[in-house]
Amino acid sequence: MWPGTLGPVETRQRQADRTRETKRKLMEATVECLVERGWSGTTTTEVAERAGVSRGAQLHHFRTRGELVAAAVEHVGAESVEVLKRRAAVTDKSTHAVVELIADFHASDLFTAALELWVAARTDPELREQVLDLQARLGREVYGLALELLDVDDAKPGVKDAVQATLDLVRGLALANQLADDGKRRAHVVRYWARMLEEQL
Fold first, then answer.
1. pTM for the predicted model, two decimal places
2. Is the separation of the CB atoms in 182 and 114 below 8 Å?
3. pLDDT of residue 132
């Protein structure tokens, strides 16, 4: 091998790094586009332009808009769960603090992007299959994280229903936040619900 040239292993590693970076750019651009333009305005061409990626590269990784958007929401969802875990590590573990963390998580841009995807899936059978699978996986992950943060065991009677009701509640609050800032009312409802949840748990 000539001095300064790359070996096969190093070449493959660099290519893998470039692939990961391209996918990351595409997925982040997709979520931005969903939040700003909605499902109808999120085209593969627009996403590729925002990401600074060629159409060929975009199509190489994601054949359809549905695949791209589902992957983007899942990717950002997984990242958001990690952010939520880090935030939880440096905050108090009171029931109110945990419910507030989970409510804020659902009021993020991720929820807005996911909502666009969920609505589009209602009338698109192919997209619906992807979204149902994605919803189930992310739902399990957030549910498990809620149990961990609240330090409860869902084998105890009533715990599973209480935690699931909490997640349903914060999703509803996030939906109410889509057209106008609903932060003040959300904070009041979160405080009220946290007191009720503490009694139940």
1. 0.74
2. no
3. 84
Instruction: Return d(Cα 77, Cα 84) in angstroms, integer.
Output: 10
pLDDT tens-digit series, residues 35-76: 888 888 888 899 999 999 988 888 888 888 888 888 887 777
Overall size of the chain counted in residues = 201
User: What six digits make up the tokens of 156?
Assistant: 């105890």
Concatenating the DSSP letter of every residue in 27-77 gives HHHHHHHHHHHHHHH--HHHHHHHHT--HHHHHHH-SSHHHHHHHHHHHHH
| Between residues 194 and 113, the one the model is more confident about | 194
3-class secondary structure, 160: helix
Tell me the C-alpha distance between 26 and 189, whole Å. Answer: 36
Query: Which residues fall within 8 angstroms of residue 174, CB to CB, at 6 or more apart?
Result: 103, 106, 107, 111
CA–CA separation, 59 vs 53, rounded Å? Answer: 10
Rg (CA), the chain: 20
Q: Are 33 and 50 in contact (CB under 8 A)?
A: yes
Which whole-number Å values give the CA distances from 144 to 150, 152, 174, 194, in the listed order? 10, 10, 20, 18
Q: What are the tokens at 106?
A: 């659902």
